[in-house]
Amino acid sequence: xxxxxxxxxxxxxxxxxxxxxxxxxxxxxxxxxxxxxxxxxxxxxxxxxxxxxxxxxxxxxxxxxxxxxxxxxxxxxxxxxxxxxxxxx
Length: 89
Description:
This protein has four helices and three strands, in the order H-E-H-H-E-E-H. The protein is an alpha+beta fold. Helix 1 packs across helix 3 and helix 2 (23-30) packs across helix 3 (34-50). 11% of the residues are buried.
């Protein structure tokens, strides 16, 4: 796999999982060293931050998780509250 394919795979795994995923598990599945996963994930984190993207990858101990950018927290909250209110009516 080239670096772009690894980036795309990491993004897809984290997006689909929703919950934190162990770096070692990602490395095992992609058959790549954990250090390589860490380095590529850090590059993605830096890129998302620099580009001020709406998503982030965060590291929690030895796991990675995709989440929304805190910049958009109020807009996300408003959308989710509107959806919740519509279901309750």
